[in-house]
Design goal:
It is built from 8 helices and 12 strands. The protein is α/β, with parallel strands linked by helices. Strands 1, 2, 3, 4, 5, 8, 9 and 12 form an 8-stranded parallel beta sheet that branches. Strands 6-7 form a two-stranded antiparallel sheet. α1 (about 20-30) packs across α3, α4 packs across α6 (about 125-140) and α7 (about 180-190) crosses α8. The protein starts with 9 loop residues before the first strand and ends with a strand. The model has no long low-confidence stretch (mean pLDDT about 95).
Length: about 240
């Protein structure tokens, strides 16, 4: 079933130099009618300039606005253990009165991993670890204690606290460019970020074909195939 969906517009805000500037940008975004106020997740300047710590910065933005939704675009799963991320995300959702959107991905920037001394493993490993991480996040957002034993994470009879305001959890956005990642997003995400594919060498493809309408349509098709009947409930982010 195809249906028209409302558009939402968000703004990515970065390279802030002061608290006053960050607060002003958040309040301006709300005044201008943007739906979401987003921040990336990088800690080397070469990627997108100097970046604030996303979860803390988003809480600051939420505290000076009333309706603006705040979100990550996107957190690198490898930079935070999902148990700690679940607690931070639920806390942010609670303190923002249900205005947080949790964007997460498998990571792609090799130079960032190397400068931080993190192992930049194969895309297959990173995607598998992300899939387990999302399972842990959803389990800790749920009402019952979580026990999970995977290849990368093990959690034993752990109850998440606090619980998020949005139930069953804050909207989860998965940024994806490859067929496998788009399929994962189709199965697990509430919002699917349609992106150019990440390359094995640790960069984002700059091929013009990645941005052509037929390529985007193919990627949406992969999401649709994996999502099945829930596809009509998904939001697509470009």
């Amino acid at each position: 079933m195809n249906r028209l969906r409302p558009f939402r517009f968000g703004v990515i805000c970065e390279q802030m130099q002061s608290a006053e500037e960050w607060i002003m940008k958040a309040q301006q975004a709300e005044d201008y009618g943007y739906a979401t106020f987003l921040i990336r997740d990088h800690f080397i300047r070469e990627a997108f300039g100097d970046q604030l710590a996303p979860m803390i910065a988003l809480m600051a933005a939420a505290s000076v606005t009333g309706t603006l939704r705040v979100g990550s675009l996107v957190l690198d799963n490898d930079y935070r253990h999902p148990v700690m991320l679940a607690k931070e995300a639920a806390t942010l959702d609670l303190l923002s009165n249900g205005r947080f959107e949790l964007g997460i991905g498998a990571g792609w920037l090799r130079s960032e991993y190397e400068q931080a001394g993190l192992a930049f493993e194969s895309a297959g490993v990173r995607v598998s670890r992300l899939e387990e991480g999302i399972h842990v996040l959803k389990g800790l957002f749920a009402d019952k204690p979580l026990s999970f034993a995977g290849n990368y994470y093990t959690v034993t009879n752990l109850s998440g606290f606090p619980k998020p305001v949005q139930r069953p959890h804050p909207p989860i956005l998965v940024g994806a460019g490859s067929k496998r990642m788009l399929a994962l997003a189709g199965r697990e995400a509430d919002i699917v970020g349609i992106l150019p594919k990440a390359l094995p060498e640790g960069a984002i493809s700059e091929e013009i074909t990645e941005r052509l309408p037929e390529t985007i349509a193919q990627k949406v098709g992969w999401v649709r195939q994996a999502a099945g009947e829930r596809f009509d409930e998904l939001e697509l982010s470009m």
